[in-house]
C-alpha cells in the first residue's frame, strides 16, 4: 500500500468517533443483533430500517424467539421493507442457529458464510464487529469511498472489480480494531462521501483523494449498465361479497413476493379494458362459481410499482358478488375484509387496502 495512505485507517476512525450516528446495534456485540441489523440494512437506508429493527427486537429478543415464530408472522412484521427473500432467509437461519447450533452464532467469517442469506459483506460485518476478525466489509458505501480516494475505474459490479476492491479493502483495514474500522468506512460513505454533491472541499481525505484531484468525483464508482427494466401489467380482482368477505391468494411460485398474499391476479401483456378482461379464460377461471353482480375498474390510471428490474403497471378491478361459493384453490383463502391486515402482503396491496377499505361500505 502506498505510503500516502498509511494513515487512512487512523483518519477514518478518528472522523467516525467524532461524527458517528448513535444507533442501537452500535451499542452491542451480540451477533444476533448485529446479524439482524445487517440483513435489514441490505438494500435499505438506516432511516427506513431502524423502526423495523426495533420492532423485531421487541417481538423477538433472541434468536430462539425468532426461530419459534411462525413464518407468516415474520413476513407480516417485515411488510414494507421489500426484498422478502431476506425475511425468509432470516427465519430459516434463526431456526438453524437455534436448533442446530444451540443458539450460538458461528464465530468466524468462514463459518458465518455457511448461514443462509449470509454473504461476504454480512459475514465480514459480524466477524469483525462481534469477534474482532480482520475481515473487510465491501458494500455500496465502501465501493464509493475506495473508488474515489484511490481513483479506481474498474466497474464495481464486475467479477474483476469485486475482487480488486475486496483485496484493497482488506489491505486498508485496521487489524487492531476491525469492527470499528468497518463501521467507520460505511458511515463515512453514508454520511459524507455521498453519491451526489459530497462536500469535498472540507473532506479529511481531500489532499489524497484521486477523484477530487482529477475532478472525477461524480464519475466514480463505475458501474456496468444494468439490464433494461421489464414492464409487467397486473390486474387484481378484488372480489367483494355481500357478507363482507373477499379472497386472498398466496404467491407460491418462484419470483417476487414468494409466500406473500394478494388478491387474485391476472397478468396481461398490456393494459386492457373491461370487455377484454371478462373475455379472458383466466378471468372465468378466477371467478368460477361466483354470482357476479358487477365488475368496475377502481383506478383508470395504473399504479406503477417499481422494483429493482421491473415496473408493475397495476390496476384493481372491483368484482362484486352476492356470495362466495368459489372452491378454494391451493394457497387461496376466503377471508373477512376486516382480517386482511392479519396477512403479510406486498406494500402495493397494503397501500390499496388502506385507501380503498377505509371508505368501503
UniProtKB/TrEMBL annotation:
Record keyword DNA damage present: yes
NCBIfam families: mutY
UniProt GO MF annotations: 4 iron, 4 sulfur cluster binding; 8-oxo-7,8-dihydroguanine DNA N-glycosylase activity; adenine/guanine mispair binding; metal ion binding; oxidized purine DNA binding; purine-specific mismatch base pair DNA N-glycosylase activity
GO biological process: base-excision repair; mismatch repair
Annotated keywords: 4Fe-4S, DNA damage, DNA repair, Glycosidase, Hydrolase, Iron, Iron-sulfur, Metal-binding
UniProt cross-references to InterPro entries, sorted A to Z: A/G_AdeGlyc_MutY, DNA_glycosylase, HhH-GPD_domain, HhH_base_excis_C, HhH_motif, MIG/MutY, MutY_C, NUDIX_hydrolase-like_dom_sf
Name of the protein: Adenine DNA glycosylase
Enzyme Commission number(s): 3.2.2.31
One protein family per Pfam: HhH-GPD
Cofactor: [4Fe-4S] cluster
Lineage of producing organism: Bacteria, Pseudomonadati, Bacteroidota, Flavobacteriia, Flavobacteriales
Species, as recorded: Aequorivita ciconiae
Amino acid at each position: 500500500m502506498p505510503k500516502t495512505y498509511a494513515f487512512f485507517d487512523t483518519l477514518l476512525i478518528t472522523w467516525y468517533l467524532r461524527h458517528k450516528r448513535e444507533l442501537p446495534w452500535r451499542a452491542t456485540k451480540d451477533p444476533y443483533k448485529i446479524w439482524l441489523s445487517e440483513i435489514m440494512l441490505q438494500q435499505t437506508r438506516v432511516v427506513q430500517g431502524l423502526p423495523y429493527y426495533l420492532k423485531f427486537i421487541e417481538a423477538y429478543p433472541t434468536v430462539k424467539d425468532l426461530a419459534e415464530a411462525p413464518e407468516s408472522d415474520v413476513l407480516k412484521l417485515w411488510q414494507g421493507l421489500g426484498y422478502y427473500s431476506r425475511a425468509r432467509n432470516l427465519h430459516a437461519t434463526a431456526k438453524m442457529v437455534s436448533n442446530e447450533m444451540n443458539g450460538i452464532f458461528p464465530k468466524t467469517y468462514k463459518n458465518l458464510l455457511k448461514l443462509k442469506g449470509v454473504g461476504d459483506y454480512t459475514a465480514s460485518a459480524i466477524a469483525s464487529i462481534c469477534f474482532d476478525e480482520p475481515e473487510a466489509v465491501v458494500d455500496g458505501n465502501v465501493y464509493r469511498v475506495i473508488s474515489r480516494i484511490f481513483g479506481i475505474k474498474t466497474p464495481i459490479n464486475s467479477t474483476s472489480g469485486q475482487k480488486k476492491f475486496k483485496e484493497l479493502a482488506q489491505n486498508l483495514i485496521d487489524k487492531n480494531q476491525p469492527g470499528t474500522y468497518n463501521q467507520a468506512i460505511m458511515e463515512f460513505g453514508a454520511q459524507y462521501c455521498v453519491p451526489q454533491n459530497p462536500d469535498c472541499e472540507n473532506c479529511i481525505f481531500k489532499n489524497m483523494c484521486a477523484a477530487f484531484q482529477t475532478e472525477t468525483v461524480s464519475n466514480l464508482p463505475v458501474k456496468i449498465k444494468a439490464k433494461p427494466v421489464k414492464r409487467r401489467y397486473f390486474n387484481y380482482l378484488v372480489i367483494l361479497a355481500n357478507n363482507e368477505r373477499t379472497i386472498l391468494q398466496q404467491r407460491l411460485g418462484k419470483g417476487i413476493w414468494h409466500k406473500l398474499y394478494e388478491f387474485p391476479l391476472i397478468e396481461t401483456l398490456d393494459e386492457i379494458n373491461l370487455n377484454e378482461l371478462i373475455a379472458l379464460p383466466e378471468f372465468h377461471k378466477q371467478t368460477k362459481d361466483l354470482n357476479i353482480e358487477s365488475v368496475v375498474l377502481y383506478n383508470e390510471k395504473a399504479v406503477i410499482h417499481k422494483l429493482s428490474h421491473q415496473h408493475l403497471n397495476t390496476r384493481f378491478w372491483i368484482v362484486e358478488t352476492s356470495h362466495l361459493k368459489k372452491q378454494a384453490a391451493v394457497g387461496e383463502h376466503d377471508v373477512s375484509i376486516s382480517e386482511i391486515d392479519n396477512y403479510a402482503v406486498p406494500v402495493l396491496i397494503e397501500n390499496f387496502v388502506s385507501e380503498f377499505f377505509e371508505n368501503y361500505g
